[in-house]
Amino acid sequence: MIKIALLGYGTIGSGVAEVLDINHDSIAKKAGEEIAVKYILDLRDFPGDKNENKIVHDYEIIVNDPEISVVVEAMGGVEPAYTFVKRALLAGKHVATSNKALVAKHGPKLLQIARERQINFLFEASVGGGIPIIRPLISCLTADVVEEITGILNGTTNYMMTKMSEEGSEFADVLKDAQQKGYAEADPTADVEGHDACRKIAILTSLVAGSQVDFEDIHCEGITKISAADIKYAKAMGKNIKLLASSRMVDGGYSAIVAPFLLDDAHPLYNVHDVFNAVFVHGNVLGDAMFYGSGAGKLPTASAVVADIVDIVKHIDKNIVIFWDEKKLTLKDYKDVAYKFFVRAAADKDAIEAAFGTVSYVEVPEIAGETAFVTEPMSGKVYEEAAAKVSGMINMIRVD
Amino acid sequence: MIKIALLGYGTIGSGVAEVLDINHDSIAKKAGEEIAVKYILDLRDFPGDKNENKIVHDYEIIVNDPEISVVVEAMGGVEPAYTFVKRALLAGKHVATSNKALVAKHGPKLLQIARERQINFLFEASVGGGIPIIRPLISCLTADVVEEITGILNGTTNYMMTKMSEEGSEFADVLKDAQQKGYAEADPTADVEGHDACRKIAILTSLVAGSQVDFEDIHCEGITKISAADIKYAKAMGKNIKLLASSRMVDGGYSAIVAPFLLDDAHPLYNVHDVFNAVFVHGNVLGDAMFYGSGAGKLPTASAVVADIVDIVKHIDKNIVIFWDEKKLTLKDYKDVAYKFFVRAAADKDAIEAAFGTVSYVEVPEIAGETAFVTEPMSGKVYEEAAAKVSGMINMIRVD
């Protein structure tokens, strides 16, 4: 019998308790041991809840109980999560977490402590919710040098882009709809400005590169500038607009970006709609692969956390090696990566071609007073020089 | 330094040597040890090949060399692969294989020997080529009861269905094209009759159920009856026809089938084209997930084999537990599963409705002399009773 403690009894923490309950027998069989929740740390009480007698308010009870071999952190945020997780590891307790902020900021330090003690720090649920992506990267794609990893990593914005595409509506309207449905928060900044996706691609890039990528170093554009007119042009080109978080190998290093992209229907991420997430990987020998599923939600995320717990129980005396040095990786300049650029400008074709050279024009009958076009592939630097020469620029979206 | 032997220097065996060479340093880092090929067993010699001095013709050299800790089986077929693999395991050598016929037939026996000796028998490449699916099933979806696993598991037939859909051509023509491109063999039976996909879904179902599923027990229909007319109807309905290999949980057991299915564009497998493979999984807590990638090909398949080798090196003293008993699982009758059925019959609407009840008709202007329709969901048994009442049945395709 493995006894565990949950830190936090919110959506994910209670989901973990629920999954351990629903699939109790099959989980025990796969782990080789029964798994029981002994404590749940939360500031609140939960009178009437089936786990109400497991609630504790003092972390010392958990960290000092030698019966607890696994701590599940589902509090979110960097502190006090970091202090609690670090103390658990130092006390020889394995940790599973769903906390992307914690992992993005302190992942390598916590992995190092786990490695030194031959225990485990796992975080499958921190990226892509229920989609298995961290473990496949660590244990399945080991024969490859990953040359690109690109994800739709935020369900809220993907829902919004899907709605805008289906209904032709404006950003402000779909945001209101997403807030009403509970998909977007009252302050939607972290989602719509791409900050959430940015932390996730920082984690994935760190794992791919084996060194710390600070999310603050990643160029990040959200979806707030995407309008119904952009969607109309996308449709005219047979493309979808998706908020991508992407890292590519450039000159032996990695360049990372979070931004809206135009994808055509041959791209594996083209058809990832609503709140679903997906991660596309290109390996130098594997070629293209994609992992798709529920990127958020109580039970899918808890499913990933519980899979970590099972893996911990199967490796109770062995550290699962995860390469992620504390040494900071300096990213290559995202402006050195070449894309085609879709551009809308209140300018005439002569001015556009003088600045951008050969372009392909896109026309939408009901939009007048502007010229829309797609450039040839060029680096971000070359694009910016060209764009500076054209007055009346309206919007730009990269084409993948 | 880990020394390995390759059994077979054909497409996959030589691919394994190539991947170990191309990504030598990154693989050594991830495995924690350098990996070197010491022997390659093949009947042929390879004069001028960079590995020509590693070729041996006698298996005894390999099985009796204590320096060899990992044997990679890439010969294909059940014998002599089974004898060689079994002897390697009995001699305490780990084994990785890409051989679906071997795994489908003798998987549980070989896993048992590996378990008893605390070594490993891994077979990621036996299903879905380079797509990580076996390891995710074993180590990522452990929190879930898998209620459905459905794959596009044969690249040849998926290429053919894609071509038929794109070009409106007939089965015989695309088969010829696939043979010319080297995607289909001179005798295409194993692909087009679904036998290849059948072995793969037998392996996946065995892993999901934890017991031996014999592929001979799985109802298997190929794509040979699919015509250009069927594709026209599919397009009229906004659907694609795909050869699916699928297992579903029914009454606490599993029912399995290989057959062409009509998928609409909301299905994650709808957009899997050409030689790509994908596996869709529905877990009771995870919900929907999908794994997509190159289902065949030298380097993608070798990538999966090498990932197994790396996992073996990381678990050199520890058996990775894979639940798959020799005890045979009796499958539920596939005719008990309910689908909608798309039907073409040279019959009038009165006769059709008398037999099938309410149906939705599908019309394609250029096809005359027949009636096409989609039934309400019904079990295969109910469908067969209804179909027996209608004379002039032309074709039936299930709708997923």
UniProtKB/TrEMBL annotation, chains A, B:
Signal peptide residue numbers: none
Enzymatic reactions: L-homoserine + NADP(+) = L-aspartate 4-semialdehyde + NADPH + H(+)
TM spans (from-to): none
Domain spans labelled Homoserine dehydrogenase catalytic: 132-310
Keyword line: Amino-acid biosynthesis, Methionine biosynthesis, NADP, Oxidoreductase, Threonine biosynthesis
Annotated ranges, domain Aspartate/homoserine dehydrogenase NAD-binding: 8-124
UniProt-recorded name of the protein: Homoserine dehydrogenase
Record bears the keyword DNA repair: no
Organism domain of life: Bacteria
InterPro entries in UniProt: Asp/hSer_DH_NAD-bd, HDH, HDH_cat, HDH_CS, NAD(P)-bd_dom_sf
Pathway as given in its UniProt record: Amino-acid biosynthesis; L-threonine biosynthesis; L-threonine from L-aspartate: step 3/5; Amino-acid biosynthesis; L-methionine biosynthesis via de novo pathway; L-homoserine from L-aspartate: step 3/3
Species, as recorded: Brotonthovivens ammoniilytica
Keyword NADP: yes
